[in-house]
Structure to design on (494 residues):
């Protein structure tokens, strides 16, 4: 049973493919965007921190000078200057503020001196502040940042960026200014992009799936048309053809199938013709036998001459039937494919033997049979099948050559082929019959009229044998002067 149709598979694959492509592109874009926003937040914090450190330097000088002008000295002056600095800090740092920035000032002992709001307080970052104090370098911390992908589904959480900046305080003491930047602008950018990006990704996925489905549906419809047309062609209606106009792969497939149908149709027609011809050929001797049997039954008991004549005729007709069934069996075996032997033998010797046998059969016609004299032509192949071909050709030559004629067989070996030729000085073949002599059951009108005993199967058997050896058989004939059959066989296959 089919678990999932081709259409179902293609739909599943196209959805998966679209999700992978569009999802991949959207995810990469989102990660790049949120990384970029994080970098922007860092840069902004760093810029604010360095300008805050700058304005603080002049504020420290100003507050020290103010404390000195009040006639204070030593620790008192430092304390007063520090207080003055802290009192002025909101105003001082306002000059360095950019976006949502909060500040907290820690003294040399990392004790909190002042904070712009509770958002500036990060008790967990104590170690980072100490490191900034020891190294005298700004230290960065990112607090409460969410996972980079969390912003895909809910609000983005870039967290807050804090720079712990070492600053000089009155009395040359070193403290730490915590600059906290709240990246709400950056988060807004990410949040603003999320919905359009999701809508775009979903639309792109849908469009891709629809496009892929449309193109696949088009191909599948063509295949389905082809299948419907193929279904309508049954074994009895081989003349139907598939629609093969499309100039694409489906059209190519239809054309290939049509060629196959052509071959099947030709084969079926040949088979029908063959059966009809075979039945027709069998009907003649059967009718003869039945006729002579009834003669035997009626007069055979009383008239000895009639009896002998009837028995002879029945014998002749039954031999003819035996020959026909043997020829038909031969053809059947040839159609099923020959298993060829491969042995070394002398072709000239074989020709001489066949010539001698044929000559004895046509002694009464006084035909001169000539062949290759003494020399040998050793080849590798199936001597039995080559003998079959030679017998048929020589028998035909004897049959269709009048009294006193000549039949010559010549052989020739070339580098990769061997040839043999059977020529006679017989009646020849009418030009319109030449192309048909290898057809099954073909006999010339003349042969039929003269009551020649063949069935028109000899040459078609020859052709099938030669074909199965990978060779060719050709005929050249001139009416009134003779006929030549030439067989050419590849050396490696013979
Ligand atoms: P058949 O058994 O009738 O000879 P073949 O297939 O051998 O059948 O030959 C087919 C026909 O070809 C013959 O009926 C005959 O008309 C013609 N033919 C074959 N060989 C010769 C030949 N050597 N000379 C003239 N006609 C020939």
């Amino acid at each position: 049973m089919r678990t999932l149709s081709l259409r179902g598979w293609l739909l599943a694959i196209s959805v998966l493919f679209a999700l992978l492509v569009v999802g991949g592109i959207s995810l990469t874009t989102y990660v790049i965007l949120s990384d970029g926003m994080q970098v922007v937040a860092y840069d902004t914090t760093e810029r604010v921190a360095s300008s805050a450190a700058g304005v603080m330097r002049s504020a420290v000088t100003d507050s020290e000078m103010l404390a000195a002008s009040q006639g204070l000295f030593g620790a008192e002056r430092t304390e007063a200057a520090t207080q003055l600095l802290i009192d002025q800090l909101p105003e001082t740092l306002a000059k360095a503020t950019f976006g949502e920035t909060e500040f907290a000032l820690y003294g040399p002992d990392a004790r909190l001196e002042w904070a712009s709001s509770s958002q500036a307080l990060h008790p967990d970052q104590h170690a980072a502040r100490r490191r900034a104090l020891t190294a005298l370098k700004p230290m960065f911390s990112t607090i409460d940042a969410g996972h980079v992908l969390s912003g895909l589904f809910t609000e983005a959480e870039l967290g807050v960026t804090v720079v712990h900046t070492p600053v000089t305080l009155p009395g040359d003491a070193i403290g730490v200014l915590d600059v906290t930047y709240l990246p709400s602008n950056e988060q807004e950018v990410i949040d603003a992009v999320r919905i359009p990006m999701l809508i775009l990704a979903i639309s792109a996925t849908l469009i891709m799936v629809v496009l892929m489905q449309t193109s696949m549906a088009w191909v599948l419809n063509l295949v389905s048309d082809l299948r419907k047309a193929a279904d309508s062609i049954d074994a009895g209606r081989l003349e139907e053809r598939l629609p093969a106009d499309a100039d694409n792969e489906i059209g190519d497939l239809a054309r290939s199938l049509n060629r196959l149908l052509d071959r099947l149709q030709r084969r079926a027609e040949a088979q029908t013709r063959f059966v009809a011809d075979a039945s027709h050929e069998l009907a003649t001797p059967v009718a003869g036998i039945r006729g002579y049997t009834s003669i035997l039954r009626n007069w055979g008991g009383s008239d000895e001459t009639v009896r002998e004549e009837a028995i002879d005729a029945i014998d002749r007709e039954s031999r003819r039937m035996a020959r026909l069934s043997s020829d038909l069996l031969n053809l059947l075996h040839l159609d099923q494919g020959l298993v060829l032997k491969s042995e070394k033998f002398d072709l000239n010797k074989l020709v001489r033997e066949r010539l001698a046998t044929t000559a004895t059969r046509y002694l009464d016609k006084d035909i001169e049979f000539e062949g290759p004299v003494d020399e040998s032509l050793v080849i590798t192949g199936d001597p039995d099948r080559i003998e079959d071909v030679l017998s048929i050709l020589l028998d035909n030559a004897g049959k269709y050559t009048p009294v006193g004629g000549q039949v010559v067989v010549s052989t020739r070996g070339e580098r990769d082929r061997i040839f043999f030729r059977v020529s006679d000085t017989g009646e020849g073949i009418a030009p319109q019959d030449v192309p048909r002599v290898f057809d099954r059951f073909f006999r010339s009108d003349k042969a039929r009229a003269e009551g020649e005993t063949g069935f028109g199967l000899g040459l078609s058997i020859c052709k099938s044998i030669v074909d199965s050896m990978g060779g060719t058989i050709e005929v050249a004939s001139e009416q009134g002067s003779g006929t030549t059959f030439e067989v050419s066989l590849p050396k490696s296959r013979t």
The two ends are 51 Å apart (CA to CA). The longest strand covers residues 160-169. The longest helix spans residues 6-69. The chain has a mean pLDDT of 87.
